[in-house]
Write a structure and sequence with these properties.
The protein is of the alpha+beta class. 23% of the residues lie in helices and 42% in strands. The chain is built from 1 helix and 5 strands, in the order βββββα. The chain has a 5-stranded antiparallel beta sheet, with helices on one face.
């Protein structure tokens, strides 16, 4: 099974290949080479350290809430 996590883009590195993102209170650097254009403030879906899709803001926030609920129940 594969899982992906929505994350908010905080900063796109000048190279255009990586971005710093925040999700569930943590920050990390992910690859963005699979996407055409990524900008700070957007939400992306992250799988295995790579952003695989730009997400609609509302859909991303809904998904983040679901993740928080699952974590709280664990």
């Amino acid at each position: 099974m594969c899982l992906s996590v929505p994350a908010k883009v905080l900063l796109v590195e000048p190279s255009g290949w990586r971005a710093r993102v925040e999700y569930l209170g943590s920050e990390m650097v992910v690859g963005i080479g699979l996407l055409e254009e990524v900008e700070p403030g957007q939400y992306v879906l992250v799988h295995a350290g790579e952003a695989i899709q730009v997400m609609d803001r509302d859909a991303a926030l809904d998904a983040i809430e679901l993740w928080k609920e699952m974590i709280d129940k664990a």
